[in-house]
Every structure is written in C-alpha cells, then in structure tokens.
What does this fold into?
Amino acid sequence: MIEFVVGDLTEQRVDAIVNSANTSLLGGGGVDGAIHRAGGPEILAECRLLGGCDTGDAKATTAGRLPARWVIHAVGPVWQGGEAGEAELLSSAHRRSLEVARDLGARTVAFPAISCGIYGYPPELAAPVAMEAVRLFEAEFETITFVFLDGALREVFARAGRR
It folds into this structure.
C-alpha cells in the first residue's frame, strides 16, 4: 500500500526512512539536515565510512536516535531543465532505495519528496516519476509512505498516485 501523509519524516515509526541526501552523504540542509540533527552523530559517523554515493543510487546506515531502524540515503538529481537525464536518475534513486530496504528486510518505508527541495525538481514532474518507480515494489512492502511538510505537496503526489 502507498500512503501520502503530512508530517515529520524524522518521527515516522517505520523500518526505514529515506533521506534526500547529497553525494557526500555528510549532511546538508532540508530533509538531510533534519535527519542528521534528529538521528544524532551516529548517522554521520556511519556515513563517513560509506565513501559518498552517486546520483541515482542509495546506501543505508542505522538510524541513530530516530524511531526507524535504518536510514536509506538516496541521492536524487539537481533539476537542470529536464534534459539532463533527471527523470531516470530520480526513478533510480527511488528504485535503489527500495532495493536497499528490501535487502535489509524492511517491510515499511517512508520517503520525502526527493529532489523537490533545494535541488529544484518541480513536484508536478517528480511525483509521476516517483510513483511509477515505487509501484514496481509495492507488493514487496507492507506500506510505502510519502511524508510531506505541507498539504499542497502531499496533494501533488497523491494525485500522481491515483493515476
């Protein structure tokens, strides 16, 4: 089942939360910064051992003080107008996140709107890409939840999820 909720990603009681990370995996702003702050220094210490992450890929760490068991650090693309392979990279970030979650044994996963913040990916274009990617894995998980800070962004993704 795919769900769409307004809330705080760092408070989700799921097996794994997905972090909208940068390629260094060493923290940043937005969702990434919130996860590192709420989860504590254990997450950053583990990230330092991973050697970064390519755009479109994902790597996992423990979740530190978060209620989740794992954080899956997914690197989405920076929006460059849509002609630089952004859709495939965004799709890949979602698919790789769920492959990593599945390999860890996670049954419940929570996502943010990857690349829709400071990376500038238009939500109306990102949502259908994200939905197409996660639908491939829907049967392998109890729930895949998309968590948003505001209702307007939630509605954009929920609309794409109804198609």
User: Anything to note?
Assistant: The chain has a mean pLDDT of 96.
